[in-house]
Amino acid sequence: MHLASQAPTVGIVIPAYNEEDTIRACVLAALDQTVPADEIIVVDNKSTDMTAEILRELAEEFPHAPLIVLQQNEAQGITPARNMGFDAVTSDVIGRIDSDSVLEPNWVEETKKVFLDEDVHAATGPVIYYDMPLRRYMARADDSARRAISKLVKQYQFLFGTNMALRRHVWETVRSEICLDADREMFEDIDLSVHIVDEGFKIVYAPTMVAGMSSRRADDSPSDFLAYVRRFDKTYDHHGLTQAALRIPQWAYLGIYPVAKSLRWTMQLRESLKR
């Protein structure tokens, strides 16, 4: 371990598309940190709902916050929106979350601690499903699963787009190699991870970097969810990755789906009965 003499600066990038129900809570959590982020860059990707208006209201509500709103209108998709945000960051470390993520209040503080180790080039952390029952239990299960996967999948450690960070110089190194995935058939965070590892950089699992995320993916139909999970295979095939251990995350997704769907159905039923 090689410790830096001072903590790095941290910027947060949030790609957003039609997230009027979640974007305010997401940005407020990024603003309300024990140690402030140096930049918060939201990239609105051709939203057709009230997302852009809510972002304008937030900028007016917090005029002194390091909040920057960009419009990415050239191409639809999380990859071009993410790329624009990453390119705009001037901080030492680029954090990346989804527009329905809700960061724990100490996320920036913990991220700075993780990147004090100069041998760490990128990191990803656990999540709490904030719209599920048994949240803390699910969080412990998620953490345990990610620790196990981190040990089993040794050659490639993957970043999780909902909760990740990388050094800006690492992004600048792999920027030209990133797959644009115009058909949106791959997982952009796994694609990024593969390029990072192939360049000899180190990705670590950081259990203290905690973010909340929505479990709304469990509301997908079985066929839609299966199509989503098949993005693992398409990403691996694109990169020529054949190791069986790399399939562990997708097996985990398929195993969790019926449980998560059942829990969400039960929760939604209880809420409807209260009305």
Short note summarizing the structure:
The protein has helices spanning 23-31, 51-61, 78-88, 107-114, 135-152, 168-174, 188-198, 222-229, 231-239, 248-274, and strands at 10-16, 39-44, 67-71, 93-97, 102-103, 122-124, 127-129, 163-167, 203-205, 211-213.
Q: What are the main properties of this structure?
A:
about 280 residues; about 15% strand; 10 helices; alpha/beta; Spore Coat Polysaccharide Biosynthesis Protein SpsA, Chain A; 7-stranded mixed β-sheet; 3-stranded mixed β-sheet
How many strands appear in the DSSP assignment? Answer: 10
Q: Which word captures the global form? A: globular
Helix content: 40-55%
Q: How many individual helices? A: 10
Cα distance spanning the termini: 55 Å
Supply the helix-strand structural class: alpha/beta
Give an account of the 3D structure.
It is a single chain. By secondary structure, this protein is α/β, with parallel strands linked by helices. The chain has one domain (10-214): Alpha-Beta Complex (Spore Coat Polysaccharide Biosynthesis Protein SpsA, Chain A), CATH 3.90.550.10. It contains ten helices and ten strands. The strands form two sheets. The chain has a seven-stranded mixed β-sheet with strand order 3-2-1-4-8-6-9, with helices on both faces. It has a three-stranded mixed β-sheet with strand order 5-10-7. Helix 7 runs parallel beside helix 9. The longest helix has 27 residues, at 248-274.
